[in-house]
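Working notes for the structural subgroup meeting. M.R. asked for a predicted model of this chain before we commit to crystallization trials. I am recording the input and output together here so anyone reviewing the notebook later can reproduce the run.

Input as submitted:
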Amino acid sequence: MKEPLAFHFANNLLESLEAQGVQLPYQCREGYCGGCRTDLIEGEVAYLQEPMAWINEGEILPCCCVPKTPLKLKLKG
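Returned structure, recorded in token form:
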């Protein structure tokens, strides 16, 4: 998705994206499975809880983080 989206006050980035019509794959919604793993191109996030799923550098789990700065994501799904 190329147009900018605003972070809506939600519990996490995944919920904010869903509220704006962006659908990402997910399973647990709590950072355990890694199903929502997304490539972070630019920006920083803060984790609300430490993810249990393995994430590589440059990846985030939207289900358990919020943006700290404007983000550029490579969305899957």
